[in-house]
Amino acid sequence: MSAAAKGTSRRPNIVVIMADQLAPHFTGAYGHQVAKTPHMDALAARGMRFDAAYCNAPLCAPSRFAFMSGQLISRIAAYDNASEFRATVPTFAHYLSALGYRTCLSGKMHFVGPDQKHGFQDRVTTDIYPSDFAWTPDWEAPDERIDKWYHNMQTVKESGCAIATFQTDYDDEVEFAARRWLIDRARDRAAGQEAPLCMVASFIHPHDPYVARPEWWDLYSDDEIELPEVLPLADHDPFSRRLMDGIEASYVPLSRDEVIRARRAYLANVSYFDSKIGALVKTLDETGELDNTVVIVTADHGDMLGERGLWYKMNFFEHSARVPLIMAGPGVVQGAAANACSLIDLLPSFLEIAGADESVLGEPVDGRSLMPLARGEADPQDEAISEYCAEMTAWPVFMIRRGDLKYIHCDGDPPQLYDLSVDPGERVNRVEDPDYACRARMFAEELAGRWDGEKLRADIIATQRSRRRLHAAMEAAGGESWDYNPPRDASQEYVRNHMDWTVAAARYRYPPLKETDK
Fold first, then answer.
1. Which residue ranges does the record assign to the Sulfatase N-terminal domain (predicted)?
2. What are 240-250's pLDDT values in tens digits?
3. Domain chopping of the chain, boundaries
């Protein structure tokens, strides 16, 4: 029986299960007719599903830094996948640790820089991507491809089925380490340690490469895979055309079979990720903690997966910028929230779950707590702000989603305004529509007041120059890597000569034997 069921007053645990590059459109919980996501569906059936949740940057590292800090990327200089996440930026892991939570990261967070924990007391796996400045873009040469790490169409062409990939190796390790950490905390509680926990289990799937293990691939068939809706190249906005050039989609053709194979593998990997949700929820249940745990399922950004002819992310259309966000647990009612929100709203939400308020903050945050919506209450706020300052552009790109309207701006490009209530596919730019003239003007004025695009661009280019020089120097000197190496002392694990094996067996056994059973 969980602590909540026993009537104790221990604060709720927080467990975040995070996918990489998961668009909500491709999950059963959000209405996809083919996707098999029973564990995500079960959480949504007993919790709150947020139907207009967005990332704050449609790229891995900056999105995650915004999620961790509750701040927009322009505030913390988290521009791209090689931006340092400064150790001076407080995260929800710092705050929750200070509030008495035991905190843990298992899996990917793409921290760049020498600080590879950012407030987590325990980090039980390494990361899957480099932690240095190797992936720094160059806005002074925006048309140059970095073939070593830029996305391209070869990734789509190589989609399919395999027994193992570096991504399945990684996610299986993340699951095992997360489950073991949860069981260790149950052992601690059995020994009288009552600290609540916050764990982030962050998986790489369904991020490309789109390659799935056979048991997940076989859940689907080619004839049930829908083809994406593709726009003619001439109908794309200028930024989308630059993005298509950057990922080679504008000049490397894909066959029908290649597109189907990639989308089938993606759905298979969505189901694979869903199995990880099931494993962690089962562990919480087995250790008696499920009733006292707020479980959050989300992602860092989505995947276009061929829609409009675009792939991957790096834009503000719905498949790229929207993320799943499902919350279930104590204090959360069953329902669906229509208000626009974003990942920066999770830090204030976690503080409210922990019983704290903004007085604990070390820096201002840009988000608001989603707990009123999670409780089924009205929330006057209905907006999400997002920024893109990475590869395949030479100017910052901004998005404001408020109510049903989405406004996108990049200096030098025509602005875009979409009314999602009547145009969910974002096919009609309303910025020149007389019926939307007043709202388009208000968005333009707000955007000009929020951001100084010229200054932000200059700051970004300055950091890019600095990071490229530093990376060259680090490579030349053969300096110490920042890649995280989880500490492990095998001499203190399992049974060793200096231990009484009966004591070790008793410590590892969960639930522990009762006195009457000894």
1. 12-356
2. 999 999 999 99
3. 13-378
**Rounded CA separation 43/29 (Å):** 9
The pLDDT tens digits for 146-205 are: 766 678 999 999 999 999 999 999 999 999 999 999 999 999 999 999 999 999 999 999
Could you confirm whether 161 is annotated as catalytic? no
In which band, very low, low, confident or very high, does the pLDDT at 123 lie, cut at 50, 70 and 90?
very high
If one counts every other C-beta atom within 10 angstroms of the C-beta of residue 208, the result is 23
Is the dihedral angle over the CA atoms 446, 451, 453, 454 positive or is it negative? positive
Catalytic residue among 55, 60, 104, 389: 60
Q: Could you give the percent of the chain with pLDDT greater than 70?
A: 97
- SS3 category, 48: strand
Whose CA is closest to 88, among 63, 125, 113?
113
For the cut 80, the answer to whether the pLDDT of residue 9 exceeds it is no
* Amino acid in position 406: K
Phi, psi dihedral angles at 501 (to 5 degrees): -65, -30
- H or E element that contains 12: none
* Residue listed under structure tokens 């970095």: 146
Long-range contacts (CB closer than 8 Å, 24 or more residues apart) made by 274-279: 274/27, 274/36, 274/37, 274/38, 274/39, 274/40, 275/39, 275/216, 276/17, 276/171, 276/174, 276/175, 276/201, 276/203, 277/17, 277/39, 277/40, 277/43, 278/38, 278/39, 279/175, 279/179
DSSP string, 93-121: HHHHHHTT-EEEEEE-----SS--STT-S
Confidence grade of residue 7 (pLDDT, cut at 50, 70, 90): very low
Distance CA 55, CA 301 (A): 6
Q: Which of 39, 94, 104, 110 is catalytic?
A: 110
CATH number of 13-378: 3.40.720.10
For 127-153, write each residue's pLDDT tens digit. 999 999 999 999 998 777 776 667 899
Buried b (16+ CB within 10 A) or exposed e, 373-392: bbeeeebebebbbbbbbbbb
- Long-range contacts from 450-457, C-beta under 8 angstroms, 24+ separation: 450/385, 450/398, 451/74, 451/396, 451/398, 453/395, 453/396, 453/411, 454/411, 456/74, 456/389, 456/396, 457/139, 457/394, 457/395, 457/396, 457/411
pLDDT value at residue 8? 47
Report pLDDT for 3: 37
Paired with 32 in beta bridges are none
- Sequential DSSP letters for 389-457: -STT-SS-EEEEEETTEEEEEETTS--EEEETTT-TT-----TT-GGGHHHHHHHHHHHHHH--HHHHH
Angle between helices 256-286 and 166-190 (to 10 degrees): 10
Q: Report the pLDDT value the prediction gives residue 518, as an integer from 0 to 100.
A: 63
- Give the Å distances, CA to CA, from 491 to 179, 181, 506: 22, 19, 18
